[in-house]
């Protein structure tokens, strides 16, 4: 981009081109808004695919939970043995072309602040956009969560988060401690156990569900996360509400003794970990499968967080600021949830823009005609 100095006006800025951002962009297009003129999609990753482009290659399409298609275009038949990163990356790229979404990348949004005339000032490493509404779809991948344990900095082995995991080969023959009770921990334990010695450590005993996943069960899990977000609390992980689905592969791994969790340690030592009762365990690697947090740092100047630590939402709309929607956040942090959130955010954005029309914003008449 060459006009770094110019401030570009748009009706809506969408930050993030993962499932949630693309779904929002699709519905903006369907409402008649033009990509690049009426709305802009900004993403700081190098390619299409949202966070999927960074997922470890052994997370094949067949091993992913269930990737729902984006609205309006089928993914088609995908080889279950290909990495999800490739399958989803290619699909998203096709999607962006098909609907002419004109994602601008790599563009890193560094801050969103109050602008002038009731607009939002979106600051990036590629210049500034001034937007009347904002759909934030920045996901969680950029904010891996690592808990702190005393002695952590003294560990002489390797520590990494699942976000940095690239495959089991480099851990061959090592003793790997996998910390965390979610789906990623389980998948990586099963993979690593083929080449390494593993120990699983969790804060709470994980709950494996033997009953199959039903729509109703999914809905009630989402409702629980939704309620937290409505109260302004940080959304908790989906597994903490749903438990882990016990698939055939998981049952087989349980029978082989791979998935036997132990209580997490109390401190980290140079050569491993230790418990308060004096027990110690040596290890070469600590793999933190401890999840992610919402990547919202760029919104900090707007002070959207509640005393409870989360952003209170009414649907996808930020309770404190009706110009802003969070999609792919909390209850909509799944591929299906992101689709729905994109649609409902756009419905509200259009209503908001139409309402503001009456109080007259001079630059916007043209595009408002389109969104009515
Ligand atoms: C290992 C793993 C496996 C998963 N498997 C599944 C599954 O099988 N099925 C399922 O439904 N869900 C799964 N999920 C959850 C999944 O993350 C969501 O379903 C969905 O893909 C998230 O989409 P999103 O658009 O919210 O976020 P993302 O895909 O993370 O997209 C966010 C985008 O925002 C961009 N961005 C972030 N910050 C900025 C910034 N400041 N400026 C500019 N751009 C920015 C990023 O570059 C990224 O492209 C999985 C999650 C993980 C971690």
Automatic annotation (TrEMBL):
<keyword id="KW-0560">Oxidoreductase</keyword>
<dbReference type="Pfam" id="PF13738">
    <property type="entry name" value="Pyr_redox_3"/>
</dbReference>
<dbReference type="GO" id="GO:0050660">
    <property type="term" value="F:flavin adenine dinucleotide binding"/>
</dbReference>
<dbReference type="GO" id="GO:0004497">
    <property type="term" value="F:monooxygenase activity"/>
</dbReference>
<dbReference type="InterPro" id="IPR036188">
    <property type="entry name" value="FAD/NAD-bd_sf"/>
</dbReference>
<dbReference type="InterPro" id="IPR050982">
    <property type="entry name" value="Auxin_biosynth/cation_transpt"/>
</dbReference>
<protein>
    <submittedName>
        <fullName>Predicted flavoprotein CzcO associated with the cation diffusion facilitator CzcD</fullName>
    </submittedName>
</protein>
């Amino acid at each position: 981009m060459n006009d770094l100095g110019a401030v570009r006006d748009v009706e809506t800025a969408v930050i993030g081109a993962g499932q949630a951002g693309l779904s929002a962009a699709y519905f903006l297009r369907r409402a008649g808004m033009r990509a690049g003129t009426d709305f802009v999609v900004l993403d700081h990753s190098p390619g299409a695919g949202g966070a999927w482009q960074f997922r470890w290659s052994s997370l094949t399409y067949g091993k992913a939970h269930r990737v729902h298609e984006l609205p309006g275009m089928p993914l088609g038949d995908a080889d279950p043995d290909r990495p999800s990163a490739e399958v989803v990356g290619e699909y998203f790229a096709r999607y962006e072309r098909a609907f002419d979404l004109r994602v601008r990348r790599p563009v890193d949004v560094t801050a969103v602040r109050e602008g002038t005339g009731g607009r939002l000032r979106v600051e990036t490493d590629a210049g500034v956009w001034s937007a009347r509404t904002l759909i934030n779809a920045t996901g969680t991948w950029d904010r891996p969560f690592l808990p702190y344990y005393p002695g952590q900095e003294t560990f002489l082995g390797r520590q990494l988060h699942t976000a940095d995991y690239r495959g089991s080969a480099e851990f061959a023959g090592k003793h790997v401690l996998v910390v965390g009770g979610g789906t990623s921990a389980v998948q990586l334990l099963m993979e690593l156990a083929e080449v390494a010695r593993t120990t699983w450590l969790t804060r709470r005993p994980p709950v494996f569900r033997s009953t199959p996943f039903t729509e109703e069960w999914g809905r009630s899990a989402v409702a629980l996360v939704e309620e937290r977000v409505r109260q302004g609390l940080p959304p908790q992980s989906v597994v903490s509400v749903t438990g882990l689905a016990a698939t055939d592969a998981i049952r087989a791994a349980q029978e082989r003794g791979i998935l036997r969790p132990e209580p997490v340690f109390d401190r980290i030592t140079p050569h491993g970990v230790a418990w308060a009762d004096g027990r110690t365990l040596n290890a070469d690697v600590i793999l933190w499968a401890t999840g992610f947090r919402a990547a919202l740092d760029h919104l900090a100047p707007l002070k959207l967080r509640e005393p409870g630590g989360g952003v209170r939402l009414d649907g996808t709309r930020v309770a404190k600021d009706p110009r802003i929607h969070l999609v792919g956040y909390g209850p909509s942090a799944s591929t299906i949830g992101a689709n729905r959130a994109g649609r409902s955010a756009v419905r509200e954005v259009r209503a908001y823009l139409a309402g503001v029309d009456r109080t007259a914003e001079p630059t916007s008449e043209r595009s408002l005609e389109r969104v009515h």
